[in-house]
Amino acid sequence: MSDKKDVKTGAVNAEVVKPETGVKESEQTALQQTGSMVDMIQAVAINPDVSVDKMERIMAMQERILDRQAKQEFASAMMSVQRDIAPIKKRLRNDHTDSSYANLDAVNRAVTPIYTVNGFSLTFGSTDSPIPECIRVICDVFHTGGYEKQYTYDSPIDNMGAKGSPTKTRAHGSGSAISYGRRYLVAMIFNLTLTDEDDDGNAATQMDVEVKKITEQQGLKLEGLLDENSVSKKAFLKHGNIKSVYDLPAAQLTGAIKWIKDQGASDE
After folding, report:
1. How far apart are CA 199 and CA 169, in angstroms?
2. Are residues 117 and 171 in the same domain?
């Protein structure tokens, strides 16, 4: 196959996307091969002449195939999330440390609606860290395709003030460390762009997130799409945690369109 040059970017790309499906040829071939393999496994499974030992090997093969497919879906959804999340800007500063910060609530407001509409969910926990004066924060990332991945971050327990004297209880310091670790794990997992990124782990400051909203024309198209798919506007606003269709952040437009179409398809 000869290389293709992208007209918009000028980049050389050997992958060809079929216009009728929007799927790369390599991805379509992989899906077809996976489907054929599953069909073969099912056919062998109902054959009474197949031994238990062979059946176990076949089942193990099927598990590997399904796991690979789930990983592909995970990677594809992750790409969509990273494409749709806009840079998060931190504007307020901590005068004691002369640094800016992004707090956990602000990061969650910016990214949660985007990663959930793409099939991801996150759960957090903590445990002892092998590093002294740290707590290990754990994040399990689940995708609706069946694949999950665990990330960890050893967050320093901060109970000291800017001048080096204790200003927090041990419990308060641990809580601050966990919030800090959660924030950094989310940033790491989704490769967030945080401007004026902080280095010192002082998690007790606030942040402003600059949000660009959809245009009036895009809002009208969304309202038309809601009507076409018989999706309640109230349900859409609740899902997006917004008061009006026109309050939708521009970065969430692609995910919102997908959600509306999925809701319409599920009602058929």
Report:
1. 22
2. yes
**Tokens representing 176?**
């601050």
What is the C-alpha R_g of the chain? 24
Domain count, the chain: 3
Q: What is the DSSP pairing of strand 194-195 with strand 99-100?
A: unpaired
CA distances from 110 to 13, 88, 91 (A): 32, 8, 15
Which pair of tokens denotes residue 97? Answer: 């440390």
Helix axis angle for 233-240 and 104-117, nearest 10°, is 140
Q: What is the largest CA-CA distance in the chain?
A: 77
Paired tokens of 150: 């665990």
Residue in 147, 144, 153, 145 with CA at minimum distance from that of residue 188: 153
- Residues of the chain with confidence (pLDDT) below 70: 1-38, 40-41, 44-45, 91-99, 101-102, 159-170, 196-212, 251, 267-268
Same domain, 29 and 107: no
